[in-house]
Design goal:
Elements lengths: L1 E6 L12 E6 L2 E5 L6 H8 L9 E3 L5 H20 L6 E5 L1 H14 L2 H4 L6 E5 L5 E4 L2 E7 L8 E7 L2 E5 L10 H4 L4 E5 L7 H4 L9 H10 L4 E5 L6 H12 L6 E3 L6 E2 L3
Parallel strand pairs: 3-4, 4-5, 5-6, 10-11, 11-12, 12-13
Antiparallel strand pairs: 1-2, 1-14, 2-3, 7-8, 8-9, 9-10
Helix pairs in contact: 2-3
Protein name: MBL fold metallo-hydrolase
Keywords: Endonuclease, Hydrolase, Nuclease
Pfam families: Anti-Pycsar_Apyc1
């Protein structure tokens, strides 16, 4: 299992792409979220990944910086099916609000000839809290993070020797413990340094600091922690600065990736 981080930024970044990523197992690919626009297509290209291979998609929630890129992927798929240059089918997973919104926007924004492929070649699967599906050869359990901003799901994917867990783009909450505890890999948002919380005000946005995320990972027995969904004011030094603060609270393997970073053999 490989992991490609397509974007690492929060909703309003301009110096990196919004948070989204790809998991791949052999020739099977799982795209998680799409960022805020057609920059998704560019990020895939830069990562030497083909949009054509993103046949399994999970969208965590309906915020613009996670959902709008998926509409561009839908457009590329439907146009290509119409032109006869794309074969097979694709599936988008999400909770009921996400699925309903993507379906409605696809019908409203795509041409009638292209939207005809919705539910024909492009399928939408609604997932519920605690439900498990097999995606790219792995059991994936979806869970409601109980966001108060917009309904949002995370997921836990079963690896051969552990699990990879994604908490979405909000801080860990106690009801997620069964999914997060003892994860081999945890993907968790970290809006900014704790030392700069007075500048970026993460708690007002329902986000956490590097310190918060690292304390959670230490308490939950996480082996490898990936921090993303950050501010973008000093990308040149972000990795070192976040690493320096984080390792005061977490002694496991801490990663602060840049856009397009690849993790092999999870």
């Amino acid at each position: 299992m490989n992991l490609t981080i397509l974007g690492t930024g929060n909703a309003t970044v301009t110096h990196c792409y919004n948070t989204c990523f790809v998991l791949d197992e052999g020739d099977q690919y799982l795209l998680i979220d799409g960022g805020g626009g057609n920059g998704l297509l560019q990020q895939l290209e830069k990562a030497h990944l083909r949009w054509r291979d993103m046949r399994t998609v999970f969208v965590t929630h309906k915020h613009m910086d996670h959902l709008l890129g998926i509409l561009w992927l839908m457009r590329m798929m439907c146009q290509s099916w119409r032109r006869g240059t794309y074969d097979g089918e694709a599936i988008i997973y999400g909770h009921e609000e996400v699925v309903s919104l993507l379906h409605a926007m696809g019908n409203a924004l795509l041409s009638s000839k292209d939207s005809a492929f919705l539910d024909d070649r492009l399928h939408f699967v609604t997932v519920s809290d605690g439900e498990t599906h097999q995606l790219i050869g792995h059991d994936v359990t979806f869970f409601d993070i109980r966001s108060t901003k917009a309904k949002q799901f995370g997921f836990s994917l079963q690896l051969s020797d552990g699990k990879l867990t994604c908490c979405g783009d909000e801080p860990y909450q106690p009801w997620e413990e069964g999914y997060v505890r003892d994860s081999k890999w945890l993907l968790h948002e970290a809006f900014c340094l704790d030392a700069e919380a007075h500048i970026f005000h993460p708690y007002e946005k329902h986000h956490s600091t590097v310190k918060d995320a690292c304390e959670t990972a230490a308490r939950m027995g996480v082996q490898n922690l990936i921090l993303y969904h950050t501010e973008d004011k000093d990308l040149t030094h972000r990795r070192q600065r976040y690493y320096d603060e984080g390792h005061q609270y977490y002694q496991g393997n801490l990663y602060i990736p840049d856009d397009l970073e690849l993790f092999r053999n999870l």
